[in-house]
TrEMBL record:
InterPro entries: MetI-like (IPR000515), MetI-like_sf (IPR035906), UgpAE/MalFG_permease (IPR050809). This is sn-glycerol-3-phosphate transport system permease protein UgpA. It comes from Rhizobium halophytocola. Part of the ABC transporter complex UgpBAEC involved in sn-glycerol-3-phosphate (G3P) import. Probably responsible for the translocation of the substrate across the membrane. Residues 70-282 form the ABC transmembrane type-1 domain. The keyword rRNA-binding does not apply.
Length: 293
């Protein structure tokens, strides 16, 4: 292995300095502020602060609405990650078989990723709004009582589909890249040996996509926990009756709407710990089943 030697000893530090500064300013500093705020309690007017140690954490874990939001987050995250990855894998395998117009089809499938989460949420809201949505009208016309404004299960289904649709394009890019990296000679050899259709996919192709699938599993978990706030805010606003209020949306409600900054900060700390623990668990146990060669 060839070792890189810099002529100036300060040059390596200068090259990584921008990334270190960004990490400190946009991660470590906000995280430290959240940790500090989680141990404090303010009065209703924000004039006084009082150190309460772990009282905010005890309060949120004894709060039924917080435990409900935790349950909603688990269901929402699992459903969003599984739906977006399965649909993306299906589309990637279909696009990989297209001979003519590959670039055109792939470009069409990538476009949704360029849509902002709030805009994506509004698109699905307009289509499935019970008062004016075209698709909502078709559902009711075919005997489906569609009303996500009052039905919590339908509201959850709507935000899951909207969030998954937004993430499908991202997953599609990586699955296509993973499929292109598989040697064609290996697929042809499997076909000659009699492995056809779904059997060839699950025994040859999918195991070779394990590194890509593992990476997307981690990314989609983080996405479902954090980056879906705009979609939920635009589509349901956490309703009806908090049926779609995830942890990140409850942090927003308690902190910016109800101005309970201590509780909101404690919730953000717990949310950060949960995501770090899930990521560590995936790398510790799930990665063992991933083969990189």
């Amino acid at each position: 292995m060839q070792r890189v030697v810099f002529p100036n000893k300060l040059l390596p530090y200068l090259l990584v300095a921008p990334q270190i500064i960004l990490t400190i300013v946009f991660f470590f500093w906000p995280a430290s502020q959240a940790l500090y705020q989680s141990t404090m309690r303010e009065d209703a007017f924000g004039l006084k602060t009082k150190f309460v140690a772990l009282a905010n954490f005890k309060a949120i874990f004894n709060d039924p609405t917080y435990l409900h939001s935790l349950q909603v987050t688990v269901v929402f995250s699992l459903a969003t990650a599984l739906l977006s990855m399965c649909v993306a894998l299906l589309l990637a395998t279909a696009a990989d078989k297209v001979v003519r117009g590959q670039t055109f089809y792939r470009t069409l499938l990538i476009w949704p990723y360029a849509v902002a989460p709030a805009v994506a949420g509004m698109l699905w809201l307009f289509m499935f709004n019970p008062a004016m949505g075209t698709l909502a009208y078709l559902l009711r016309r075919n005997g489906v009582h569609w009303d996500p404004v009052l039905d919590g299960n339908q509201a959850m289904l709507l935000v899951v589909v909207a969030a998954a649709w937004k993430q499908v394009s991202y997953n599609f890019l990586f699955f296509v890249a993973g499929l292109q990296a598989i040697p064609k000679s290996l697929i042809e050899a499997a076909a000659i040996d009699g492995a056809r259709g779904s059997r060839r996919f699950w025994t040859i192709v999918f195991p070779l996509l394990a590194p890509t699938t593992f990476f997307l599993l981690v990314v989609n978990t983080v996405y479902a926990f954090f980056d879906t706030f705009g979609i939920i805010h635009a589509v349901t606003g956490g309703g009806p009756a908090k049926a779609t209020e995830t942890l990140v949306y409850k942090v927003y409600n308690d902190g910016f709407v109800n101005l309970n900054l201590g509780s909101s900060a404690a919730q953000s700390v717990v949310l950060m710990v949960i995501v770090i623990a899930l990521t560590a668990f995936q790398f510790r146990f799930v990665e063992k089943r991933v083969h990189y060669s």
